[in-house]
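Quick log. Single chain, no ligands specified.
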Amino acid sequence: MAVYTEVSDDDLAALEAAYDIGEIVACKGIAEGVENSNFLIETTRGPYILTLYEKRVDPADLPFFLGFMEHLAKAGCVACPVPIKGRDGQALRTIAGRPGAVITFLRGIWPRRITAEHCAELGAAMAKLHNAGLSFEGTRPNNLSVEGWRSLVGKISEDTAAKLDPTLPGLMRGELETLSAAWPKLRSSPDRPSGVIHADLFPDNVFFLDGKCSGLIDFYFACTDFLAYDVAICLNAWCFEPNGEFNSTKAKRMLSSYETVRPLSEAEKQHLPLFARGSALRFMLTRLYDWVNTPPGALVKPKDPREYLHKLNFHRQVKSIGEYGLV
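-> predicted structure:
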């Protein structure tokens, strides 16, 4: 979440007229995240979230995102925000010159200090999401898979990358070619299933109450891809310590909890190091791109891509899936 577009009093008045959500009494920007502009709206009926979709989000993808959230809510297995339909029956509309939507407020807070128990809760929630997604009829390609990485590499100046770390230019090119050659073609099969994945299950997108997962938010990278790739993203996002050390205990708790809901196939386990390596490259590249392209007035601080350079180098050295806590 972030704030790139400001919302005026006139915008709020129009919003209040368009929805049956009560009188708007407060609106506060949420400065976390990097993608869209988000606001906490307090009304006489309670809190809601207003999201304005910024330039990186294709408006044509919004029905997929919102439809998937509605699908999960109806399935009842994973708590998530639900888009609110306006008086005209539509969830999407133009707000402050941007495509926008009002969604329900999800109670909980994201964990600032990740524990093995958090990882276990995440594993089960992610597996439930994957199972529920198998019955969702919509599909959306992962625009930040191999071809997306290639596009990003072409947009990032080697001089800019070298200023952050002198190894980056060569590593970006080398990893792109290595992973492109090894990456399996996307087709669902019993041993390597694909379906709708969240693709951005970082700690700030997972809420907890009393130590239990209370829900998942921010579905605006959701797409159709290998389910195990989502697991690999979470290995990177949840199982490294602040000092950069990989925590195999956290990984084991996450993976074992995931498997209580949806067991991983042997092929998925074998591909996990490759998927973890690709995930690390993906987030390193998007962070590097944002490092030099975030608007100067945005209320968001771009994240350091070197964190994911370190993770990528870790996965390049993995010799056995046992290093991820798998047997």
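The chain has ten helices and nine strands.
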